[in-house]
Amino acid sequence: MIECMRLIRLWIAEGFIEVREGRTLEEVAEGYLNDLVNRSLIQVAELTTYGRVRMCRIHDLIREIFVLKSKEQIAITIGSNTKWPERVRRLSIHNALENVQQSRSFSQLRSLLMFEVMDPLCKSSMPILFNGCLRLLKVLDLRGTSLETVPNEVVKLLHLRYLSLRETNVKMLPKSIGNLQKLETLDLKGTYVTELPIEIQKLQQLRHLLVYHYNTSETYTSFHNTQGFKGPAKIGALLSLQKLCYIEANLNIVEELGRLTQLRRLGIEKLTRENGMALCSSIAKLRNLQSLSITSTEEDEIIDLQSLSSAPQFLRSLLLRGRLEQFPCWIPSLHNLDQAYDGEELCFKAGGFQRLKELSLITLKGLRWVTIEKGTMPRLEEINIWNCKLMEQVPLGIEHLTNLKYLSLGDMSDKLLMRIDREIGVDYWKIGHIPRVWIANTQSGCWRGAYL
C-alpha cells in the first residue's frame, strides 16, 4: 500500500505539481490524487475519519502498465541482481545494495528511493552511491535502512527537496544540514533524533518537518508514548512550514509558533499550564490550521486554553492529552470539527458536534459518567473508550447514536463489561444496534480482545 501524503510530498519535490492561485501545492496534488481514484487508476485502501484518502494501492494490471511506461522514461526498479544504465533519472532499490556498480556515475539521477534495504552492506555501499555525481538529485528516501549517521555526501546535495530518514537509526543531524536550502520535506519520524541544530533555521523553503517516534517500552495508552523534539529558538523563521510534528513546548517556542501562519498541522508536546496563555495567542494567528494536537507534560498537568476566544475556523481535528479544568468554550463552535478527543466528565448537549465522526476517550482516570443527549453527534460512526476504569456503564444515551458503526472498549471495569454482556447484561440493549463492538484488555503490554 502507498501512503498518500508521502506520495503527495514526492510529487511536489519532483516538480510535478503546478502552482494555482488560492491553493497550496498540497491541495492541488490531493486533487490530482482524487482524479486518479475517480478514474480507477488508483484504488482506495484506507480513508481518514473525515473521508480523505489515507492509503492507496494500484491494481496489478495498471501496475504492469506503469512499470512498462517507467522503463521508457528511464525510471527503473532494481532487485538484487539488476543492472541499470548511467542515464537513469529515477531509481528505486529494493531489499539490497549488494550489486551497486562502482563505475556508475548517476549524473542524471533526480530521485533515489530505497525500500527495506536492511543488509549490512548498506553502510559500505552508501559512499559508492554518493560519489559526488548526484548533483541534480531532488528526492532522497532512505526509509528503513540501517543508517546510524547522515552520510557527509547527503548535505552536499544542494538541489535536494525531499529527504526521508524515517525508521533509520540516525540519532542526530549535522550542522551542515543548513546547506540544503531548497529542502521542502524533512522526515525523521521513527528515528532517534530528539533535538535539531540551530542551522535548521536556514531552510526557508521547508514545508513539512516530522520529528518524533513512539516509545516501544510504553503501552499504547501510556501518556508518554510519543517522543517529540527540541526545536531551535527561532523556529518561527521557517515561514513556509505547513506541517510541524511534534515540537516540545517552552515559552519561547510557543511564542515563535505564532509566526508560522501557513501551518495546516501542528503537534505540541510537554505543554505546561504557565505557557497556555502564550500558546492561545499564537494559535489565534494560525488562520489556516486544520489539525491540532496538544499534550501536557504529565497526566495531571492542566491544559489551559481558556484565553483563546475562538479557534481557527478550518480546524478539523483536535487532540488534547492532559487535564482540563474547564471545557474550552470555543470547542462547540468548531463547525468543521471531524475528529476530537477530550477528557473529564462529559455531557454532550443536544445540537452539538453536528459533523463529528469519531470520538476517543483515553486514560481519563476521573471519568465516571458520559451523557449523550438526543440530537447530538448525529454523524458519529466510531467511539473508542480505553482505560477509563471508573466508568461503570456505557455512555447514557448511546442508543440515540443511530449511525454508530463501531464501539471499542479497552481496559474497562468489570462492572461495565458485565452490564453489556450479551446474555445477562442489563445494558446490552443500549448497544445492540451497533454492528461491531470490540472488547479488549492489555496483557504484557499488548492488546488482546474479541468482538462481543
TrEMBL record:
**Keywords recorded for this protein, A-Z:** Nucleotide-binding, Plant defense, Repeat
Q: Which residues form a coiled coil?
A: none
GO annotation, biological process: defense response to other organism
- Disease resistance protein winged helix domain residues are 2-65
Q: Does the keyword Transit peptide apply?
A: no
Asked if Nucleotide-binding is a keyword of the record, the answer is yes
**What is the recorded name of this protein?**
NB-ARC domain-containing protein
Species in which this protein is naturally found: Nyssa sinensis
